[in-house]
Amino acid sequence: MSEHSTYTPGTAVEKWLDDRLPVVRFAKEHLMDFPTPKNLNYWWTFGAILVMCLGVQIVTGVILAMHYTPNVGLAFDSVEHIRRDVNGGRIIQAVHAVGASMFFVALYIHMFRGLFYGSYKAPREIIWILGVLIFILTVATAFMGYILPWGQMSFWGATVISNIFSAIPLIGENIKQLVLGGFAVGNPTLNRFFSLHYLLPFVIAAIVALHIWALHVPGNNNPIGVEVKDGRDTVPFHPYYTMKDLFAMVLFMIPFAWFVFFAPDILGHPDNYIMANSQVTPAHIVPEWYLLPFYTILRAIDFNILFIDSKLGGVIAMGGALVMLLIVPWLDTGKVRSGTFRPVFKWFFALFTINFVALTYLGAQPAEGIYVVLAKVCTAIYFLYFLVVLPVLSRIEVTKPLPTSISESVLGKANA
Amino acid sequence: MATHSEHSSTNRRDFLYVATGAVGAVGAASVVWPLINQLNPDASTLALASIEFDVSSIPEGQSVTITWRGLPVFVRHRTAAEIEEARAVPLSDLKDPETDEQRTKPGHEQWLIMIANCTHLGCIPVGEAGDFDGWFCPCHGSHYDSAGRIRRGPAPLNLVVPPYEFVSDTLVQIG
Question: B94-131 pLDDT, tens per residue?
Protein backbone atom coordinates (compact mmCIF):
# COMPACT_ATOMS: atom_id res chain seq x y z
CA MET A 1 0.00 0.00 0.00
CA SER A 2 3.03 2.23 0.12
CA GLU A 3 3.18 2.57 -3.68
CA HIS A 4 0.46 5.18 -3.93
CA SER A 5 2.70 8.18 -4.18
CA THR A 6 1.42 10.96 -6.34
CA TYR A 7 4.38 13.10 -5.45
CA THR A 8 6.07 14.94 -8.28
CA PRO A 9 8.70 17.44 -7.20
CA GLY A 10 7.53 20.87 -8.28
CA THR A 11 10.69 22.89 -8.19
CA ALA A 12 14.32 22.18 -9.00
CA VAL A 13 15.15 22.38 -5.28
CA GLU A 14 12.53 19.77 -4.44
CA LYS A 15 13.82 17.57 -7.25
CA TRP A 16 17.37 17.94 -5.98
CA LEU A 17 16.29 16.96 -2.46
CA ASP A 18 14.08 14.11 -3.69
CA ASP A 19 17.03 12.51 -5.49
CA ARG A 20 19.15 12.63 -2.35
CA LEU A 21 16.83 12.25 0.67
CA PRO A 22 13.19 11.71 -0.28
CA VAL A 23 11.68 12.92 3.01
CA VAL A 24 9.01 14.97 1.32
CA ARG A 25 7.99 12.00 -0.81
CA PHE A 26 7.93 9.84 2.34
CA ALA A 27 5.77 12.31 4.23
CA LYS A 28 3.37 12.65 1.34
CA GLU A 29 3.03 8.89 0.97
CA HIS A 30 2.63 8.10 4.63
CA LEU A 31 1.13 11.16 6.27
CA MET A 32 -1.03 12.59 3.49
CA ASP A 33 -1.95 10.24 0.64
CA PHE A 34 -1.96 7.05 2.67
CA PRO A 35 -5.13 5.16 1.66
CA THR A 36 -7.22 4.70 4.81
CA PRO A 37 -10.49 2.77 5.12
CA LYS A 38 -13.33 5.25 4.92
CA ASN A 39 -15.39 3.65 7.71
CA LEU A 40 -13.04 4.21 10.68
CA ASN A 41 -14.96 5.30 13.78
CA TYR A 42 -13.79 7.44 16.69
CA TRP A 43 -12.18 4.46 18.45
CA TRP A 44 -9.55 4.73 15.71
CA THR A 45 -8.50 8.22 16.74
CA PHE A 46 -6.68 7.03 19.85
CA GLY A 47 -3.51 6.15 17.92
CA ALA A 48 -3.03 9.80 17.04
CA ILE A 49 -4.07 10.82 20.55
CA LEU A 50 -1.35 8.54 21.93
CA VAL A 51 1.28 10.13 19.72
CA MET A 52 0.16 13.47 21.15
CA CYS A 53 0.37 12.09 24.71
CA LEU A 54 3.91 10.85 24.15
CA GLY A 55 4.86 14.26 22.77
CA VAL A 56 3.32 16.07 25.74
CA GLN A 57 5.17 13.82 28.20
CA ILE A 58 8.51 14.28 26.44
CA VAL A 59 8.22 18.07 26.19
CA THR A 60 7.02 18.60 29.78
CA GLY A 61 9.46 15.96 31.05
CA VAL A 62 12.51 17.58 29.47
CA ILE A 63 11.44 20.86 31.08
CA LEU A 64 10.90 19.27 34.51
CA ALA A 65 14.37 17.68 34.33
CA MET A 66 15.82 21.20 34.10
CA HIS A 67 14.54 21.95 37.62
CA TYR A 68 14.53 18.55 39.32
CA THR A 69 17.31 17.09 41.49
CA PRO A 70 17.63 13.27 41.65
CA ASN A 71 19.01 12.97 45.17
CA VAL A 72 17.21 11.50 48.18
CA GLY A 73 17.88 14.62 50.23
CA LEU A 74 16.71 17.08 47.60
CA ALA A 75 14.26 15.32 45.26
CA PHE A 76 11.10 15.85 47.29
CA ASP A 77 11.86 19.54 47.85
CA SER A 78 12.84 20.07 44.23
CA VAL A 79 9.41 18.87 43.07
CA GLU A 80 7.76 21.27 45.53
CA HIS A 81 10.15 23.94 44.22
CA ILE A 82 8.90 23.27 40.69
CA ARG A 83 5.28 23.53 41.85
CA ARG A 84 5.77 26.74 43.83
CA ASP A 85 8.73 28.71 42.48
CA VAL A 86 9.42 27.84 38.85
CA ASN A 87 7.61 30.08 36.36
CA GLY A 88 4.56 28.15 35.22
CA GLY A 89 5.95 25.09 37.00
CA ARG A 90 2.67 24.39 38.75
CA ILE A 91 0.97 23.81 35.41
CA ILE A 92 3.89 22.08 33.69
CA GLN A 93 4.29 19.61 36.55
CA ALA A 94 0.53 19.00 36.63
CA VAL A 95 0.43 18.40 32.86
CA HIS A 96 3.20 15.80 33.22
CA ALA A 97 1.57 14.04 36.19
CA VAL A 98 -1.98 14.14 34.79
CA GLY A 99 -0.51 13.38 31.36
CA ALA A 100 0.68 10.00 32.61
CA SER A 101 -2.89 9.08 33.59
CA MET A 102 -4.36 10.41 30.35
CA PHE A 103 -1.71 8.46 28.43
CA PHE A 104 -2.95 5.26 30.04
CA VAL A 105 -6.62 6.12 29.45
CA ALA A 106 -5.86 6.41 25.74
CA LEU A 107 -3.59 3.37 25.80
CA TYR A 108 -6.22 1.11 27.38
CA ILE A 109 -8.95 2.35 24.98
CA HIS A 110 -6.60 1.77 22.03
CA MET A 111 -5.85 -1.78 23.23
CA PHE A 112 -9.47 -2.67 23.95
CA ARG A 113 -10.40 -1.36 20.50
CA GLY A 114 -7.81 -3.73 19.04
CA LEU A 115 -9.18 -6.62 21.10
CA PHE A 116 -12.78 -5.99 20.03
CA TYR A 117 -12.16 -5.44 16.34
CA GLY A 118 -9.60 -8.25 16.05
CA SER A 119 -6.87 -5.85 14.97
CA TYR A 120 -4.27 -8.35 16.20
CA LYS A 121 -5.25 -10.97 13.62
CA ALA A 122 -3.22 -11.85 10.53
CA PRO A 123 -1.57 -10.01 8.89
CA ARG A 124 -1.31 -7.52 11.79
CA GLU A 125 0.32 -9.67 14.51
CA ILE A 126 3.57 -7.70 14.51
CA ILE A 127 1.72 -4.37 14.84
CA TRP A 128 -0.08 -5.79 17.86
CA ILE A 129 3.06 -7.25 19.48
CA LEU A 130 4.96 -3.98 19.02
CA GLY A 131 1.97 -2.28 20.64
CA VAL A 132 2.14 -4.61 23.64
CA LEU A 133 5.88 -3.86 23.92
CA ILE A 134 5.07 -0.15 23.89
CA PHE A 135 2.53 -0.76 26.65
CA ILE A 136 5.06 -2.67 28.79
CA LEU A 137 7.73 0.02 28.28
CA THR A 138 5.20 2.74 29.11
CA VAL A 139 4.31 0.93 32.33
CA ALA A 140 8.03 0.73 33.22
CA THR A 141 8.55 4.40 32.40
CA ALA A 142 5.52 5.52 34.38
CA PHE A 143 6.56 3.38 37.33
CA MET A 144 10.06 4.88 37.40
CA GLY A 145 8.63 8.36 36.98
CA TYR A 146 6.43 7.85 40.02
CA ILE A 147 9.56 7.18 42.13
CA LEU A 148 11.10 10.55 41.29
CA PRO A 149 9.02 12.84 43.61
CA TRP A 150 10.41 10.68 46.46
CA GLY A 151 7.23 10.63 48.52
CA GLN A 152 6.02 7.75 50.66
CA MET A 153 4.16 6.07 47.79
CA SER A 154 7.19 6.55 45.53
CA PHE A 155 9.44 4.80 48.02
CA TRP A 156 7.11 1.99 49.01
CA GLY A 157 5.88 1.42 45.48
CA ALA A 158 9.51 1.00 44.44
CA THR A 159 10.13 -1.34 47.38
CA VAL A 160 7.15 -3.54 46.56
CA ILE A 161 7.87 -3.72 42.83
CA SER A 162 11.63 -4.28 43.20
CA ASN A 163 10.86 -7.16 45.55
CA ILE A 164 9.24 -8.84 42.56
CA PHE A 165 12.78 -9.58 41.38
CA SER A 166 13.61 -11.36 44.63
CA ALA A 167 10.93 -13.94 43.76
CA ILE A 168 13.23 -15.35 41.07
CA PRO A 169 14.70 -18.59 42.46
CA LEU A 170 18.39 -18.66 43.51
CA ILE A 171 19.63 -15.43 41.92
CA GLY A 172 16.61 -13.28 42.82
CA GLU A 173 18.21 -11.48 45.75
CA ASN A 174 21.33 -10.66 43.69
CA ILE A 175 19.24 -9.32 40.82
CA LYS A 176 17.27 -7.18 43.25
CA GLN A 177 20.49 -5.68 44.63
CA LEU A 178 21.74 -5.12 41.10
CA VAL A 179 18.54 -3.26 40.22
CA LEU A 180 18.46 -1.18 43.41
CA GLY A 181 22.19 -0.61 43.79
CA GLY A 182 21.89 -1.40 47.50
CA PHE A 183 20.09 -3.59 50.01
CA ALA A 184 17.04 -1.35 49.94
CA VAL A 185 15.63 1.44 47.78
CA GLY A 186 17.96 4.41 48.21
CA ASN A 187 19.93 7.13 46.49
CA PRO A 188 21.52 4.86 43.85
CA THR A 189 18.01 3.63 42.98
CA LEU A 190 16.63 7.14 42.59
CA ASN A 191 19.56 8.18 40.39
CA ARG A 192 19.33 5.26 37.98
CA PHE A 193 15.54 5.44 37.76
CA PHE A 194 15.83 9.10 36.81
CA SER A 195 18.36 8.22 34.12
CA LEU A 196 16.15 5.44 32.71
CA HIS A 197 12.97 7.50 33.01
CA TYR A 198 14.61 10.03 30.72
CA LEU A 199 15.85 7.37 28.29
CA LEU A 200 12.82 5.11 27.86
CA PRO A 201 10.40 7.59 26.22
CA PHE A 202 12.82 7.86 23.31
CA VAL A 203 12.96 4.07 23.07
CA ILE A 204 9.15 4.12 23.07
CA ALA A 205 9.17 6.72 20.30
CA ALA A 206 11.42 4.45 18.23
CA ILE A 207 9.09 1.48 18.72
CA VAL A 208 6.12 3.70 17.84
CA ALA A 209 7.88 4.36 14.53
CA LEU A 210 8.17 0.59 13.97
CA HIS A 211 4.51 0.17 15.05
CA ILE A 212 3.39 2.67 12.39
CA TRP A 213 5.75 1.22 9.81
CA ALA A 214 4.24 -2.22 10.41
CA LEU A 215 0.76 -0.65 10.22
CA HIS A 216 1.53 0.89 6.84
CA VAL A 217 2.34 -2.49 5.28
CA PRO A 218 -1.18 -4.03 5.39
CA GLY A 219 -2.92 -0.72 6.19
CA ASN A 220 -5.53 -0.11 8.87
CA ASN A 221 -8.00 -2.64 10.12
CA ASN A 222 -11.52 -1.18 10.26
CA PRO A 223 -14.79 -1.63 12.15
CA ILE A 224 -16.12 -4.37 9.87
CA GLY A 225 -12.77 -6.15 9.67
CA VAL A 226 -13.09 -6.70 5.90
CA GLU A 227 -9.88 -5.89 4.03
CA VAL A 228 -9.76 -2.95 1.65
CA LYS A 229 -10.63 -4.24 -1.84
CA ASP A 230 -10.21 -1.20 -4.08
CA GLY A 231 -9.92 2.57 -4.12
CA ARG A 232 -13.62 3.04 -3.38
CA ASP A 233 -13.04 1.65 0.11
CA THR A 234 -10.48 4.25 1.10
CA VAL A 235 -9.93 7.96 1.48
CA PRO A 236 -6.56 9.73 1.72
CA PHE A 237 -5.31 10.09 5.29
CA HIS A 238 -5.06 13.84 4.77
CA PRO A 239 -7.33 15.74 5.10
CA TYR A 240 -9.97 13.18 6.13
CA TYR A 241 -8.26 11.55 9.10
CA THR A 242 -5.85 14.33 10.01
CA MET A 243 -8.93 16.48 10.68
CA LYS A 244 -10.87 13.75 12.44
CA ASP A 245 -7.84 12.93 14.64
CA LEU A 246 -7.28 16.61 15.43
CA PHE A 247 -10.92 16.98 16.43
CA ALA A 248 -10.65 13.92 18.69
CA MET A 249 -7.47 15.35 20.22
CA VAL A 250 -9.32 18.54 21.09
CA LEU A 251 -12.11 16.54 22.75
CA PHE A 252 -9.53 14.48 24.61
CA MET A 253 -7.82 17.62 25.88
CA ILE A 254 -11.02 18.83 27.58
CA PRO A 255 -10.94 16.33 30.47
CA PHE A 256 -7.12 16.54 30.38
CA ALA A 257 -7.29 20.30 30.96
CA TRP A 258 -9.99 19.91 33.59
CA PHE A 259 -7.71 17.67 35.64
CA VAL A 260 -4.70 19.94 35.15
CA PHE A 261 -6.49 23.11 36.16
CA PHE A 262 -9.04 21.94 38.71
CA ALA A 263 -7.83 18.65 40.20
CA PRO A 264 -4.16 18.07 39.45
CA ASP A 265 -3.71 15.79 42.47
CA ILE A 266 -6.96 13.84 42.38
CA LEU A 267 -5.39 10.92 40.47
CA GLY A 268 -2.43 10.74 42.84
CA HIS A 269 -2.25 9.69 46.44
CA PRO A 270 -2.06 12.04 49.47
CA ASP A 271 0.66 9.86 51.03
CA ASN A 272 3.00 10.96 48.27
CA TYR A 273 3.06 14.42 49.79
CA ILE A 274 4.91 12.94 52.76
CA MET A 275 8.62 12.57 52.09
CA ALA A 276 9.92 9.01 51.70
CA ASN A 277 10.69 7.29 55.01
CA SER A 278 12.26 3.83 55.02
CA GLN A 279 11.07 3.20 58.61
CA VAL A 280 7.33 3.71 58.09
CA THR A 281 5.09 1.93 55.59
CA PRO A 282 1.88 3.74 54.64
CA ALA A 283 -1.09 1.79 56.01
CA HIS A 284 -2.20 0.96 52.51
CA ILE A 285 0.18 0.89 49.54
CA VAL A 286 -1.63 1.52 46.29
CA PRO A 287 0.08 1.87 42.93
CA GLU A 288 -1.15 4.40 40.41
CA TRP A 289 -4.59 3.46 39.08
CA TYR A 290 -3.29 2.33 35.69
CA LEU A 291 -1.22 -0.45 37.27
CA LEU A 292 -4.03 -1.73 39.51
CA PRO A 293 -5.38 -4.55 37.29
CA PHE A 294 -1.95 -6.17 37.15
CA TYR A 295 -1.32 -5.45 40.82
CA THR A 296 -4.54 -7.32 41.69
CA ILE A 297 -3.35 -10.32 39.68
CA LEU A 298 0.03 -10.16 41.45
CA ARG A 299 -1.48 -10.39 44.90
CA ALA A 300 -4.36 -12.74 44.01
CA ILE A 301 -1.92 -15.66 44.11
CA ASP A 302 -1.49 -16.08 47.88
CA PHE A 303 -1.19 -19.86 47.88
CA ASN A 304 1.60 -22.24 46.83
CA ILE A 305 1.19 -24.17 43.58
CA LEU A 306 3.22 -27.41 43.70
CA PHE A 307 6.86 -26.35 44.10
CA ILE A 308 6.15 -22.69 43.18
CA ASP A 309 5.69 -20.56 46.27
CA SER A 310 3.00 -17.91 46.47
CA LYS A 311 5.36 -15.01 45.83
CA LEU A 312 6.87 -16.44 42.64
CA GLY A 313 3.36 -17.58 41.67
CA GLY A 314 2.06 -14.02 41.87
CA VAL A 315 4.92 -12.74 39.74
CA ILE A 316 4.37 -15.50 37.17
CA ALA A 317 0.64 -14.69 37.06
CA MET A 318 1.32 -10.98 36.51
CA GLY A 319 3.87 -11.72 33.79
CA GLY A 320 1.46 -14.26 32.34
CA ALA A 321 -1.25 -11.61 32.09
CA LEU A 322 1.03 -9.69 29.73
CA VAL A 323 2.09 -12.82 27.87
CA MET A 324 -1.62 -13.47 27.13
CA LEU A 325 -1.68 -10.18 25.22
CA LEU A 326 1.46 -11.09 23.30
CA ILE A 327 0.10 -14.45 22.13
CA VAL A 328 -3.55 -13.49 21.58
CA PRO A 329 -3.13 -13.53 17.76
CA TRP A 330 -2.57 -17.28 18.06
CA LEU A 331 -5.25 -17.90 20.67
CA ASP A 332 -8.04 -16.30 18.67
CA THR A 333 -7.69 -17.95 15.27
CA GLY A 334 -11.17 -17.17 13.94
CA LYS A 335 -11.23 -15.69 10.46
CA VAL A 336 -13.81 -13.01 11.27
CA ARG A 337 -12.00 -10.05 12.82
CA SER A 338 -14.65 -7.64 13.97
CA GLY A 339 -16.62 -8.35 17.16
CA THR A 340 -19.62 -6.79 15.42
CA PHE A 341 -20.14 -10.02 13.47
CA ARG A 342 -19.47 -12.36 16.39
CA PRO A 343 -22.69 -12.64 18.42
CA VAL A 344 -21.27 -14.81 21.22
CA PHE A 345 -17.84 -13.17 21.36
CA LYS A 346 -19.53 -9.82 21.98
CA TRP A 347 -20.90 -10.97 25.33
CA PHE A 348 -17.62 -12.49 26.45
CA PHE A 349 -15.82 -9.31 25.40
CA ALA A 350 -18.25 -7.26 27.50
CA LEU A 351 -17.60 -9.60 30.44
CA PHE A 352 -13.84 -9.30 29.91
CA THR A 353 -14.07 -5.50 29.89
CA ILE A 354 -16.18 -5.37 33.06
CA ASN A 355 -13.82 -7.88 34.64
CA PHE A 356 -10.84 -5.65 33.80
CA VAL A 357 -12.55 -2.70 35.48
CA ALA A 358 -13.24 -4.95 38.47
CA LEU A 359 -9.55 -5.92 38.61
CA THR A 360 -8.70 -2.22 38.68
CA TYR A 361 -11.18 -1.60 41.50
CA LEU A 362 -9.95 -4.56 43.54
CA GLY A 363 -6.33 -3.45 43.31
CA ALA A 364 -7.20 -0.36 45.31
CA GLN A 365 -8.98 -2.32 48.05
CA PRO A 366 -7.30 -3.79 51.14
CA ALA A 367 -6.26 -7.44 50.85
CA GLU A 368 -8.87 -8.86 53.19
CA GLY A 369 -12.30 -10.49 53.34
CA ILE A 370 -14.41 -10.63 50.21
CA TYR A 371 -11.84 -8.67 48.16
CA VAL A 372 -9.36 -11.55 48.37
CA VAL A 373 -11.94 -13.97 46.96
CA LEU A 374 -13.10 -11.58 44.24
CA ALA A 375 -9.51 -10.90 43.19
CA LYS A 376 -9.02 -14.65 42.62
CA VAL A 377 -12.28 -14.91 40.66
CA CYS A 378 -11.45 -11.93 38.44
CA THR A 379 -7.91 -13.18 37.84
CA ALA A 380 -9.35 -16.55 36.80
CA ILE A 381 -11.81 -14.84 34.39
CA TYR A 382 -8.96 -12.84 32.84
CA PHE A 383 -6.99 -15.97 32.03
CA LEU A 384 -10.03 -18.04 31.02
CA TYR A 385 -10.96 -15.39 28.45
CA PHE A 386 -7.64 -15.79 26.69
CA LEU A 387 -6.92 -19.48 27.23
CA VAL A 388 -10.41 -20.99 26.91
CA VAL A 389 -13.02 -18.56 25.57
CA LEU A 390 -11.05 -17.21 22.58
CA PRO A 391 -9.66 -20.54 21.31
CA VAL A 392 -13.02 -22.32 21.72
CA LEU A 393 -15.13 -19.49 20.25
CA SER A 394 -12.86 -19.11 17.24
CA ARG A 395 -13.64 -22.77 16.42
CA ILE A 396 -17.34 -23.15 17.21
CA GLU A 397 -18.92 -19.71 16.95
CA VAL A 398 -21.38 -19.15 14.10
CA THR A 399 -20.60 -15.67 12.83
CA LYS A 400 -22.94 -13.30 11.04
CA PRO A 401 -22.45 -12.82 7.28
CA LEU A 402 -19.83 -10.21 6.45
CA PRO A 403 -20.47 -7.34 4.03
CA THR A 404 -18.63 -7.94 0.78
CA SER A 405 -16.74 -4.64 1.06
CA ILE A 406 -16.25 -1.55 3.17
CA SER A 407 -17.93 0.48 0.46
CA GLU A 408 -21.02 -1.72 0.50
CA SER A 409 -21.32 -1.62 4.28
CA VAL A 410 -21.08 2.17 4.33
CA LEU A 411 -23.71 2.55 1.59
CA GLY A 412 -25.94 -0.08 3.18
CA LYS A 413 -25.92 1.88 6.41
CA ALA A 414 -26.79 5.07 4.57
CA ASN A 415 -29.83 3.41 2.95
CA ALA A 416 -31.11 1.87 6.15
CA MET B 1 42.08 -31.22 -6.89
CA ALA B 2 38.95 -29.09 -6.83
CA THR B 3 37.33 -31.12 -4.09
CA HIS B 4 40.52 -31.06 -2.04
CA SER B 5 40.96 -27.26 -2.07
CA GLU B 6 37.22 -26.68 -1.54
CA HIS B 7 37.24 -29.05 1.36
CA SER B 8 40.32 -27.71 3.13
CA SER B 9 39.55 -24.03 2.53
CA THR B 10 36.01 -24.48 3.87
CA ASN B 11 37.39 -25.98 7.07
CA ARG B 12 40.00 -23.29 7.45
CA ARG B 13 37.43 -20.53 6.85
CA ASP B 14 35.02 -22.10 9.33
CA PHE B 15 37.70 -22.29 11.97
CA LEU B 16 38.68 -18.66 11.43
CA TYR B 17 35.06 -17.51 11.54
CA VAL B 18 34.35 -19.38 14.75
CA ALA B 19 37.62 -18.31 16.37
CA THR B 20 37.12 -14.67 15.43
CA GLY B 21 33.52 -14.81 16.60
CA ALA B 22 34.53 -16.39 19.91
CA VAL B 23 37.25 -13.82 20.59
CA GLY B 24 34.83 -11.05 19.65
CA ALA B 25 32.15 -12.43 21.99
CA VAL B 26 34.58 -12.70 24.91
CA GLY B 27 35.79 -9.16 24.20
CA ALA B 28 32.24 -7.81 24.03
CA ALA B 29 31.30 -9.60 27.26
CA SER B 30 34.33 -8.21 29.07
CA VAL B 31 33.32 -4.70 28.02
CA VAL B 32 29.66 -5.20 28.92
CA TRP B 33 30.26 -6.69 32.37
CA PRO B 34 31.70 -3.53 34.03
CA LEU B 35 28.82 -1.58 32.49
CA ILE B 36 26.38 -3.89 34.30
CA ASN B 37 28.45 -4.37 37.45
CA GLN B 38 28.41 -0.62 38.15
CA LEU B 39 24.73 -1.14 39.06
CA ASN B 40 25.68 -3.36 42.03
CA PRO B 41 25.85 -1.92 45.58
CA ASP B 42 28.87 0.39 45.78
CA ALA B 43 31.61 0.50 48.43
CA SER B 44 29.87 3.17 50.51
CA THR B 45 26.71 1.07 50.68
CA LEU B 46 28.62 -2.08 51.61
CA ALA B 47 30.57 -0.20 54.31
CA LEU B 48 27.44 0.03 56.50
CA ALA B 49 27.34 -3.74 56.90
CA SER B 50 27.69 -4.10 60.70
CA ILE B 51 26.14 -2.18 63.65
CA GLU B 52 25.93 -2.52 67.45
CA PHE B 53 22.76 -1.91 69.47
CA ASP B 54 22.06 -1.83 73.22
CA VAL B 55 18.77 -3.61 73.95
CA SER B 56 18.61 -2.78 77.69
CA SER B 57 16.44 0.29 77.14
CA ILE B 58 13.54 -1.72 75.67
CA PRO B 59 10.96 -2.69 78.34
CA GLU B 60 9.18 -6.02 78.14
CA GLY B 61 6.35 -6.00 75.61
CA GLN B 62 7.88 -3.17 73.59
CA SER B 63 9.83 -3.09 70.38
CA VAL B 64 11.97 -0.67 68.44
CA THR B 65 12.87 -0.40 64.78
CA ILE B 66 16.51 0.30 63.95
CA THR B 67 18.34 0.62 60.63
CA TRP B 68 20.89 -1.87 59.33
CA ARG B 69 22.24 -1.64 55.78
CA GLY B 70 19.40 0.75 54.98
CA LEU B 71 16.87 -1.87 56.05
CA PRO B 72 14.56 -1.49 59.03
CA VAL B 73 15.12 -4.11 61.76
CA PHE B 74 12.66 -5.00 64.52
CA VAL B 75 14.05 -5.61 68.00
CA ARG B 76 11.25 -6.91 70.21
CA HIS B 77 11.37 -7.64 73.93
CA ARG B 78 8.82 -10.44 74.05
CA THR B 79 6.56 -11.23 76.99
CA ALA B 80 6.58 -14.70 78.53
CA ALA B 81 3.09 -15.27 77.11
CA GLU B 82 4.30 -14.53 73.59
CA ILE B 83 7.22 -16.94 73.90
CA GLU B 84 4.90 -19.58 75.33
CA GLU B 85 2.47 -19.09 72.45
CA ALA B 86 5.21 -19.32 69.84
CA ARG B 87 6.59 -22.52 71.32
CA ALA B 88 3.19 -24.17 71.53
CA VAL B 89 2.70 -24.04 67.75
CA PRO B 90 3.23 -27.47 66.11
CA LEU B 91 5.66 -27.30 63.19
CA SER B 92 3.07 -28.91 60.94
CA ASP B 93 1.00 -25.70 61.15
CA LEU B 94 3.81 -23.65 59.63
CA LYS B 95 4.29 -22.69 56.00
CA ASP B 96 8.03 -22.19 56.59
CA PRO B 97 8.72 -24.57 59.51
CA GLU B 98 11.14 -23.20 62.09
CA THR B 99 11.05 -23.59 65.88
CA ASP B 100 11.04 -20.59 68.16
CA GLU B 101 14.50 -21.67 69.43
CA GLN B 102 15.91 -21.54 65.89
CA ARG B 103 14.84 -17.91 65.60
CA THR B 104 16.38 -16.67 68.85
CA LYS B 105 19.71 -17.03 70.69
CA PRO B 106 19.91 -19.43 73.65
CA GLY B 107 19.65 -17.50 76.92
CA HIS B 108 18.19 -14.50 75.09
CA GLU B 109 14.85 -15.99 74.03
CA GLN B 110 12.99 -12.84 75.00
CA TRP B 111 14.77 -10.92 72.21
CA LEU B 112 13.37 -11.34 68.73
CA ILE B 113 15.50 -9.57 66.11
CA MET B 114 14.26 -9.62 62.53
CA ILE B 115 14.51 -7.63 59.32
CA ALA B 116 11.28 -5.64 59.30
CA ASN B 117 10.46 -6.15 55.64
CA CYS B 118 7.62 -8.50 54.83
CA THR B 119 9.06 -11.42 52.86
CA HIS B 120 6.34 -10.95 50.28
CA LEU B 121 7.07 -7.58 48.75
CA GLY B 122 8.95 -5.67 51.41
CA CYS B 123 6.41 -3.55 53.30
CA ILE B 124 6.92 -3.05 57.04
CA PRO B 125 4.38 -5.16 58.95
CA VAL B 126 2.44 -3.61 61.83
CA GLY B 127 3.41 -4.94 65.30
CA GLU B 128 1.05 -6.57 67.80
CA ALA B 129 -1.49 -7.11 65.08
CA GLY B 130 -2.92 -9.85 62.89
CA ASP B 131 -4.66 -13.07 63.82
CA PHE B 132 -1.58 -14.68 65.44
CA ASP B 133 -0.55 -12.03 68.01
CA GLY B 134 2.50 -11.07 66.00
CA TRP B 135 2.71 -8.87 62.94
CA PHE B 136 0.31 -8.04 60.14
CA CYS B 137 1.41 -6.67 56.79
CA PRO B 138 -1.19 -4.16 55.59
CA CYS B 139 -0.01 -4.24 51.98
CA HIS B 140 -1.07 -7.71 50.96
CA GLY B 141 -2.43 -9.21 54.15
CA SER B 142 0.31 -11.50 55.50
CA HIS B 143 -0.06 -12.57 59.15
CA TYR B 144 3.03 -13.42 61.25
CA ASP B 145 2.99 -14.99 64.71
CA SER B 146 4.81 -13.93 67.88
CA ALA B 147 8.01 -15.53 66.58
CA GLY B 148 7.72 -13.63 63.27
CA ARG B 149 6.78 -16.77 61.37
CA ILE B 150 4.45 -16.58 58.37
CA ARG B 151 1.06 -18.07 59.22
CA ARG B 152 -1.32 -16.81 56.55
CA GLY B 153 -1.22 -14.66 53.42
CA PRO B 154 0.97 -14.37 50.33
CA ALA B 155 4.40 -14.09 52.00
CA PRO B 156 6.41 -17.28 51.38
CA LEU B 157 8.86 -17.14 54.29
CA ASN B 158 9.21 -16.15 57.93
CA LEU B 159 10.51 -12.66 58.67
CA VAL B 160 14.26 -12.90 58.09
CA VAL B 161 16.52 -13.14 61.13
CA PRO B 162 19.71 -11.26 60.25
CA PRO B 163 23.09 -12.64 61.32
CA TYR B 164 23.70 -11.28 64.85
CA GLU B 165 25.22 -12.17 68.21
CA PHE B 166 25.10 -10.91 71.76
CA VAL B 167 28.56 -9.50 72.48
CA SER B 168 27.50 -8.88 76.10
CA ASP B 169 24.24 -9.49 77.95
CA THR B 170 22.60 -6.41 76.48
CA LEU B 171 24.77 -5.43 73.52
CA VAL B 172 23.88 -6.94 70.14
CA GLN B 173 26.06 -6.85 67.07
CA ILE B 174 24.06 -7.14 63.87
CA GLY B 175 25.86 -8.11 60.67
Answer: 888 888 888 988 888 889 999 998 888 788 888 888 88
The answer as to whether A7 is a domain residue is: no
Least CB–CB distance from B140: residue in A183, A188, A299: A299
List the domain range (segments joined by +) for residue A286. Answer: 34-407
CA distance A234 to chain B (A): 50
Q: Is A159 on the interface with B (CB under 8 A)?
A: yes
B140 is catalytic: yes
Q: For residue A27, tell me if it sits in a domain.
A: no
d(CA B34, CA B27): 12
Give the closest-approach CA distance of B87 to chain A in angstroms. 25
d(CA B45, CA A133): 34
Enter the ipTM. Answer: 0.75
Q: How many domains does chain A have?
A: 1
Interface of B with A in 2-31 (CB under 8 A): none
Q: Is A405 on the interface with B (CB under 8 A)?
A: no
The catalytically annotated residue of B7, B120, B140, B143 is B140
Closest to A302 (Cβ–Cβ): which among B41, B71, B154? B154
Residue A109 lies in a domain: yes
CATH of residue A339's domain is: 1.20.810.10
For residue A369, being part of any structural domain is answered with yes
